[in-house]
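FAQ: What does the model actually see?

It sees only this:
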Amino acid sequence: MNQSSPRKLKVGRRFLGVRFINCMTYGRLYINDTGNGYSGRCPKCGKLYEIRIGAEGTSERMFAAYC
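And it is asked to produce this:
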C-alpha cells in the first residue's frame, strides 16, 4: 500500500455474536433489513432467533442462548 494513498475503512453488516449453549457452537445474528432488530439461526439445529433493538438496550455485542 502506498503511504500517500488514503486508507479505506471496511464497513460490513452489523451483527451480534451468540454462543449457542446446547449445540456447543457460535453464530451471528445480523441486523435485519428495516434496521430495528437482529435475526439469525443456530448453525447446528436451525432454531430462529429474532432480537429487537430497543431504546433502553445494551451495548454488549456477545450473548449466550439456549437452543
